[in-house]
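Example record

One chain of 384 residues, shown exactly as stored in the release files.
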Amino acid sequence: MLAFWLRQDDDAGTPRVLDSPSARQDLAAAALADLQTAVGARDRARLHPDAGELAETAVDNAEKLRVAGFTVRYVDEDAALTATLPDGQWAAAVDTTWRFAGYDPREAHAEVTFVFAREGDHAVLVDVGGGGRRTPLWLATALNVSRTPQALVMAAGDQPVNRFARQARVAVRAVGEVLPPWRQKLVMVVPESDEQLDGVLAADPGEYAEIAAVTTTVDGSLSPSAPVHVFVNPEVFSGLRRNGAQVVTTHELVHVATGAATASNTPLWLLEGFADYVALRDATLPLSVTAGQVLAQVRRDGAPRHLPAGNEFDTHTTHLGASYEAAWLACRLLAQTGSEQDLLRLYDEVSDGAPVGAALQQVYGFGEKELVQRWRRELERLAR
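Predicted structure tokens for this chain:
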């Protein structure tokens, strides 16, 4: 099949390329090749002279972020999305890899939506994102960047990158006091809005509306080799006081350091409770702040009869805050019953695949039933 058709232009008397999916693919592939070369060299001059502002922005971001391992391969046109675009534009799924040198141990790998427009004999990149695919923020908008040896922070729009960078530095120190050295460094991604966060994570609108930040793999997989970043919801985060914002940042770094994003064996009460234990370890906040919701529940309904289950940490659950607080108090109780190192040992044993009951018995000498009884008594005592 021919990639494109030619017809005679009656006015100019010269052949003209008509629009077709294969012709669009050829134009887009050439634009992607230029972008890959320019990002690899971190040099705008490698772009087509009329590549467009978004391509230039991506190259600028690549220089700030020290992007490496960047590849782009045109997969197929997204006909459904193309049908919603202005005439002359088309959307395509593009197989994309990249990493931030010095921070990501391996390349991220995702299928990303690129939107192109024809400008004469070449294609211009006009948008990145949409189509239900993840959107790498650095390809989609201009960023401010801050880096330290242990943390890379990128922020879109007017988000205060220096504020996030300060919190990252404090978090690195706090986590380092509890955990042994970890491989994955902190990469913090701060979109301009919660809508932009939804696009970055290919999430349903409002999925993270009540969440200040989430730690997850860049590609959304559970692969242990996938890079893990912290993604901030700026609209929730901006409403936190300084101490609260610091607790959130440290909590998320614990998830990065422990590989929680891919830890399918660890029950969420232990995974989230341990992260809050580290984040609140040196905090001077009163229990009315750190456990106010769960203690109010205990006063009203009595102590819960089981540790928080996985569905109680769903982002849309009614008592999400109380579930986090209950998990934190369980982990705090374990650290007080034995030691901080005992709690860390329990976490490691369970993360490595040991059943919770067996790991508790090995570390503490009692099982899950006894833990629940002790935890309930502690909740009742604190609620008085």
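Notes: Confidence is low (pLDDT under 50) at residues 1-18.
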